[in-house]
């Protein structure tokens, strides 16, 4: 324990004249004893933690000199804490350490399943049959990246692999990555899919049958109730409700209009895909009136006014339908009508134009006439093709026919005409002075490889790109429409009158006493008059 | 900057401009010298300006800086422990900040607004006793009104925690637990989401 270094405590104590006990203990022997006492005090082991101050100081000073941080005096307490904490890590357990399973590990396990290839022999067989078209997600992602839109490469690759899994599982004809919708707890990754013909319709038929049987049961109940009602007719009945719910607008068939594509969602790549139910016009009409965040759970209820018919899966599907109808565009001329003689309403089918010549990128950016919608817009009714609801009620009973006539006379629902199928997007209305679309080129520096990017202002988050023959569209966002004004929820309807007002139940002022007496006198005179007449007649008969 | 090449400095906004900019609605135009006509929005201020000899307009760059400051003040957040307050009152970056643990990172209470605290004094004495004055000198996110205006998600299997503000749609805060990395960015239209209470 030789001469103390400058950084060690106790330095200078052994020099004559520098000891703290200088004036008290001039004797060198005593000074050495004092030093020993001080050191023994420092070495005293703490009763709680088994450390002693001497070692602790030595460790701190070693650490400080090793790392040499700035402004050491300000952070000395933190350093002290760190050194103490370092002591605790080395626990020598006789039991084997249980490695905590990190959530990262579990997530990685799920993603690992994506990377597993199926048996090699099966793949060769599949190549002979029709391969469903797997979208090249990475290629479209490359083009979108030029514009600064997109997810990270890792995530896109996971999505790519999970789309491949989806195709292997479901009988899919075409598939496309539609986009990602953000939610509060979890996000949704959405794939737009067309199944092979005949696959999706089976489910629809069973659903319709169920609905019909339920309707028949209700009719039987209704008839039974009416018989009872006729018996009691003579007794006073409470007034019947004159409320007739508006006729339910049937949803569109699979493969047409709003239900043209089927959508699968998953919360994260690696999780199983869930099929979204087809959308009904009532849901679209209601979705237009409400604005709600998605939570990320498909079975969550949507609490809103007007009450949304369905849970979050239906709301998600309705928003997807609206976004698709509003923002799916393609370069003009890429699609043409299949049969030009047919009327536009029936011409739902369009096909690729083999003679399409892509416009140069500069033109695509400058004018919006080079882009066209290829999805039918949704009418106010909630469908793409208008249907007259009063025509549907042919199967109702006789009682309803009379009222039908009244309805036709009174409220003729105007036939709604939407925009024809391949309208140019330059005809999209803007809001106030904000145009509906914003176009720009991805780069001005390299015009030959730049890509035309189209950004929607009505649905913030919807993007489309075009470069020569390639084009695609995607959505990343919260799933809500943009409106410059704030959202005002619908007011509740006015309270319905319970009873039609009539003389039987309207209030009138009670007659006063004088009026009553006068009325009574008048009645008695009338009676007296009648009796006299009766007596006269009897007299005449005799 | 409009093209990431030429950058221009924005002057900090005065309180009047902040108040005015809050009333402007609609998207930004993209042109910093675009002028909004004040007469439509606030006739009093416009009249005052006219009397003063200036034109009753407000430029877009003023609106821009006002929006930036609003966003920073309202939703600029930092994790707990990243900044410490010295006894003298000045706030420094904590060089010993090792990141939040995974458990802490999932809780909203471990993130603070990086502005003058408003709610600290309203806490009960019991809560105040638990606070560590060197690290807990800012408002926590837990008591934000309306409740639930932050969406907290773990991405990439739990390696990154992402908070998204629902009041200013487009503000994203990220943090890698157990490391020093954190930060927030804003990509969006620059408009406050006033429909938030209807959407939750």
TrEMBL record, chain A:
<feature type="compositionally biased region" description="Acidic residues">
    <location>
        <begin position="527"/>
        <end position="542"/>
    </location>
</feature>
<keyword id="KW-0969">Cilium</keyword>
<feature type="region of interest" description="Disordered">
    <location>
        <begin position="389"/>
        <end position="419"/>
    </location>
</feature>
<feature type="compositionally biased region" description="Acidic residues">
    <location>
        <begin position="199"/>
        <end position="230"/>
    </location>
</feature>
<feature type="region of interest" description="Disordered">
    <location>
        <begin position="197"/>
        <end position="254"/>
    </location>
</feature>
<keyword id="KW-0963">Cytoplasm</keyword>
<dbReference type="GO" id="GO:0001534">
    <property type="term" value="C:radial spoke"/>
</dbReference>
<dbReference type="GO" id="GO:0060294">
    <property type="term" value="P:cilium movement involved in cell motility"/>
</dbReference>
<dbReference type="Pfam" id="PF04712">
    <property type="entry name" value="Radial_spoke"/>
</dbReference>
<dbReference type="InterPro" id="IPR006802">
    <property type="entry name" value="Radial_spoke"/>
</dbReference>
<feature type="compositionally biased region" description="Acidic residues">
    <location>
        <begin position="395"/>
        <end position="415"/>
    </location>
</feature>
<feature type="region of interest" description="Disordered">
    <location>
        <begin position="523"/>
        <end position="542"/>
    </location>
</feature>
<protein>
    <submittedName>
        <fullName>RSH4A protein</fullName>
    </submittedName>
</protein>
<feature type="region of interest" description="Disordered">
    <location>
        <begin position="1"/>
        <end position="25"/>
    </location>
</feature>
<keyword id="KW-0966">Cell projection</keyword>
<feature type="region of interest" description="Disordered">
    <location>
        <begin position="487"/>
        <end position="508"/>
    </location>
</feature>
<dbReference type="GO" id="GO:0035082">
    <property type="term" value="P:axoneme assembly"/>
</dbReference>
<keyword id="KW-0206">Cytoskeleton</keyword>
UniProtKB/TrEMBL annotation, chain B:
<dbReference type="GO" id="GO:0060091">
    <property type="term" value="C:kinocilium"/>
</dbReference>
<keyword id="KW-0970">Cilium biogenesis/degradation</keyword>
<protein>
    <recommendedName>
        <fullName>Radial spoke head protein 9 homolog</fullName>
    </recommendedName>
</protein>
<dbReference type="GO" id="GO:0060294">
    <property type="term" value="P:cilium movement involved in cell motility"/>
</dbReference>
<comment type="similarity">
    <text>Belongs to the flagellar radial spoke RSP9 family.</text>
</comment>
<keyword id="KW-0963">Cytoplasm</keyword>
<keyword id="KW-0282">Flagellum</keyword>
<dbReference type="GO" id="GO:0005930">
    <property type="term" value="C:axoneme"/>
</dbReference>
<dbReference type="GO" id="GO:0044458">
    <property type="term" value="P:motile cilium assembly"/>
</dbReference>
<keyword id="KW-0206">Cytoskeleton</keyword>
<keyword id="KW-0969">Cilium</keyword>
<dbReference type="InterPro" id="IPR055316">
    <property type="entry name" value="RSP9"/>
</dbReference>
<dbReference type="GO" id="GO:0035082">
    <property type="term" value="P:axoneme assembly"/>
</dbReference>
<keyword id="KW-0966">Cell projection</keyword>
């Amino acid at each position: 324990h030789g001469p103390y270094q400058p950084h060690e405590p106790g330095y200078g104590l052994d020099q004559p004249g520098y000891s703290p006990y200088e004036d008290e203990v001039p004797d060198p022997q005593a000074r050495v004893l004092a030093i020993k006492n001080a050191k023994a005090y420092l070495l005293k082991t703490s009763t709680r933690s088994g450390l002693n101050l001497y070692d602790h100081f030595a460790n701190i000073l070693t650490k400080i000199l090793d790392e040499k941080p700035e402004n050491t005096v300000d952070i000395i307490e933190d350093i002290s804490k760190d050194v103490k904490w370092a002591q605790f890590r080395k626990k020598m357990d006789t039991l084997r350490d249980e490695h905590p399973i990190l959530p990262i590990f579990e997530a990685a396990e799920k993603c690992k399943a994506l990377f597993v290839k199926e048996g090699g022999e099966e793949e060769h067989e599949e190549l002979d049959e029709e391969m469903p078209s797997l979208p090249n997600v990475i290629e479209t992602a490359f083009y979108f990246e030029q514009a600064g839109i997109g997810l990270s490469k890792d995530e896109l690759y996971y999505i790519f692999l999970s789309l491949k899994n989806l195709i292997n599982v479901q009988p899919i004809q075409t598939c496309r990555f539609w986009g990602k919708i953000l939610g509060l707890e979890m996000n949704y990754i959405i794939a737009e899919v067309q199944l092979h013909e005949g696959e999706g319709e089976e489910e629809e038929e069973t659903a319709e049958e169920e609905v019909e049987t339920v309707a028949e049961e209700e009719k039987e109940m209704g008839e039974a109730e009416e018989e009872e009602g006729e018996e009691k007719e003579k007794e006073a009945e409470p007034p019947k409700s004159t409320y007739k719910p508006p006729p339910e607008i049937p949803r569109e068939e699979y493969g047409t209009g709003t239900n043209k594509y089927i959508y699968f969602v998953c919360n994260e790549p690696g999780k199983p895909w869930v099929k979204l139910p087809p959308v009904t016009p009532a849901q679209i009409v209601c979705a237009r009136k409400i604005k709600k965040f998605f939570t990320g759970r498909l079975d969550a209820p949507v609490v809103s006014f007007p009450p949304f018919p369905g849970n979050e899966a239906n709301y998600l599907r309705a928003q997807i339908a609206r976004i698709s109808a509003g923002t799916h565009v393609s370069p003009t001329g890429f699609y043409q009508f299949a049969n030009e003689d047919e009327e536009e309403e029936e011409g739902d089918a369009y096909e690729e134009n083999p003679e399409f010549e892509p416009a140069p990128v500069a033109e695509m950016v400058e004018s919006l006439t080079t882009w066209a919608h290829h999805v039918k817009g949704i009418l106010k009714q909630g469908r793409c093709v208008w249907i007259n609801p009063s025509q549907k009620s042919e199967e109702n009973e006789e009682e309803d026919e009379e009222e039908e006539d009244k309805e036709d006379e009174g409220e003729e629902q105007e036939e709604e005409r939407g925009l024809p199928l391949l309208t140019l997007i330059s005809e999209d209305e803007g809001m106030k002075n904000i145009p509906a679309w914003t176009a720009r080129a991805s780069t001005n520096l390299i015009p030959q490889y730049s890509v035309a990017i189209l950004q929607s202002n009505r649905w913030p988050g919807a993007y489309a790109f075009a470069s020569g023959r390639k084009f695609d569209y995607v959505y990343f966002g919260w799933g809500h429409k943009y409106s410059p004004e704030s959202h005002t929820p619908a007011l509740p309807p006015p309270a319905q009158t319970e009873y039609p007002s009539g003389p039987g139940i309207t209030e009138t002022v009670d007659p006063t006493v004088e009026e009553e007496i006068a009325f009574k006198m008048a009645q008695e005179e009338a009676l007296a008059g009648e009796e006299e007449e009766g007596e006269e007649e009897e007299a005449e008969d005799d | 900057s409009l093209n990431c090449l030429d950058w221009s400095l924005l002057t900090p906004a005065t309180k009047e401009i902040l108040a005015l900019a809050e009333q402007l609605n609609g998207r930004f135009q993209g042109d910093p010298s675009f002028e909004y006509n004040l007469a439509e929005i606030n006739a009093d201020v416009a009249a005052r300006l006219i009397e003063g000899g200036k034109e009753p307009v407000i430029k877009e760059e003023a609106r821009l800086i006002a929006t930036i400051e609003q966003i920073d003040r309202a939703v600029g957040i930092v994790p707990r422990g990243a900044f410490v307050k010295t006894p003298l009152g000045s706030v420094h970056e904590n060089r010993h900040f090792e990141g939040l643990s995974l458990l802490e990172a999932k809780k909203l209470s471990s993130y603070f607004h990086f502005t003058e605290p408003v709610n600290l004094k309203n806490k009960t004495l019991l809560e105040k006793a638990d606070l560590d004055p060197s690290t807990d000198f800012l408002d926590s996110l837990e008591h934000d009104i309306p409740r639930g205006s932050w969406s907290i998600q773990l991405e990439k299997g739990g390696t990154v925690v992402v908070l998204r503000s629902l009041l200013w749609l487009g503000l994203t805060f990220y943090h890698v637990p157990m490391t020093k990395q954190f930060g927030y960015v804003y990509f969006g239209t620059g408009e406050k989401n006033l429909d938030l209470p209807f959407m939750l």
